[in-house]
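Lecture 7 notes: from sequence to structure.
We start with the chain below.
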Amino acid sequence: GITNLCVIGGDGSLTGADIFRTEWGGLLEELVKSGKITEDVAKKYCHLNIVGLVGSIDNDFCGTDMTIGTDSALHRIMEVIDAITTTAQSHQRTFVLEVMGRHCGYLALVSALASGADWLFIPEAPPEDGWEDFMCERLGETRSRGSRLNIIIIAEGAIDRHGKPITSGYVKDLVVQRLGFDTRVTVLGHVQRGGTPSAFDRVLSSKMGMEAVMALLEATPDTPACVVSLSGNQSVRLPLMECVQVTKDVQKAMDEKRFEEAIQLRGRSFENNWNIYKLLAHQKTTQRKTPFGLAILNVGAPAAGMNAAVRSAVRIGISQGHTVYVANDGFEGLAKGQIREVGWHDVAGWLGRGGSMLGTKRTLPKTCLEKIVENVRKFNIHGLLVVGGFEAYEGVLQLVEARGQYEELCIVMCVIPATISNNVPGTDFSLGCDTAVNAAMESCDRIKQSASGTKRRVFIVETMGGYCGYLSTVTGIAVGADAAYVYEDPFTIHDLKANVEHLTEKMKTDIQRGLVLRNEKCHEHYTTEFLYNLYSSEGRGVFDCRINVLGHLQQGGAPTPFDRNYGTKLGVKAVLWMSEKLGQAYRKGRVFANSADSACVIGLRKKVVAFSPVTELKKVTDFEHRLPQDQWWLNLRLMLKMLANYQISLTEYVAGKMEHVTRRTLSIEKG
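Predicted structure tokens for the same chain:
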């Protein structure tokens, strides 16, 4: 009596499922003919509903931003690249790294972007004839400039213009013969499929799983089979056959050597990745020099991915012809004149570094305005790029509000939100919060494991985030927490009582452990200590309790692939936007920018990268608690409760919309 199938797999499995669906009627007739089922049964089950979820590490399914498993595969690749980087630097070696991707270069492309690789081979973009000479010349150049490390990344399906495979062995021999460099090949193979899933994958697949069941519940005989997918951070439903068709078109374009078209059919974000990689990998000689000076600084607490954003901003600034400065220690360093000009190679190797290489402080500009203005004038700064958390946004707002007093502050300003708390208005994701969620998740995984085999135990884990509950909510989903207490979702003693009773009932079954997350400032009186005492006394005889405060481990560590990539892209987008604004505000040999839209926060909002004026965002900010008034992730809490086995009302559930996948939709610029 099964008439609803949820199929998780690659395009093969999904195409098969759709064929099965079209043949369903005929198969039922056969069963009736052979007497295995009756006419009535055939009538009752005359229709099969199918929803697909794409599980594929290659991210090769058209129409979907991210397939399940891609992010985890990137984690494995980046771990290897980080390890190789240290050994290669000490030995002065060249490494040729082969990653998976027979037909799709996504993994190779993103890992090259996230590691700053020297050269890249992907099936969608075969190199021009004579690439051997170009590559060796480039490697020789970087080595002669003192770089101790060369990394070349190859997708296993890499080919040249004539469709002949380019193998890692061939590339290695080439480098050894022509340049005499000590060269090693590493083939990653099935390592990429293994390991524990990353936080992004756990949350993505939980969202997709829930959306798939909702789509099946709403399906009628007339709805086409659909794939549940992600666009930005929104769930969407796409007609299965449209996706399969475009995915086949890519392969056909590649077979017929229409490579430009293949890249476009992969979708706009693949194309953007490819263009940004080419921009940042190698310094082109700039023809033009602009009259503009650009200063970059970090403000607030360190967050992973800050250095990636600074690196790409510096390099794009230089390639645009601007003079690029960096300031140490935030606004304080800007006031004290700790400002220096930087070149292309000064930021080499910054991508994988955690924390902040420039140094960061929480000082706000209003304490040292005059000195900041003096240095802006002295260094001739026309654009200010601030990478940081809530203080970065608040600081730029103060500078904008001081424009009336100081004409020097009528310059172009942009904030790249970077904070583990994810509490900056104007963006759905801040730089660094993916790394922080992964760090918290890994700790909770270990904490849960410590209880296996002992008596029943409940862990109360406190996360960071100030008043913002993003970190504890998303970590809660990633580790299957029983509850996550946050400031934005107010709770009373009745809720606490219900949670304790729910856990006590659960612990009477064969479940051995519970996990309760608490955001550090979720309640003035219900502290971590209070929760511990409450759970301990109510659970006496059923389970015992332990407290864990995660603390600063959430701020550290190497950035995740998501944050390296996101930081790189935001750095590029921000500087390109600033260049455009500088051009508009330049008259009679000087820059004068005082409109609201000359000082913005860049961020991902739903499906697109957008710029929001800080003066507009001021209206939707709760400054006392350092929060945006509207938080998109609160709708994830419904899923958290459902997964912890609470009865929930689905009336609040926001279902994904049905969208189409065509060449036109794939070409839309989402940033």
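Points to note: The first strand starts at residue 4 and ends at 9. The mean pLDDT is 91.
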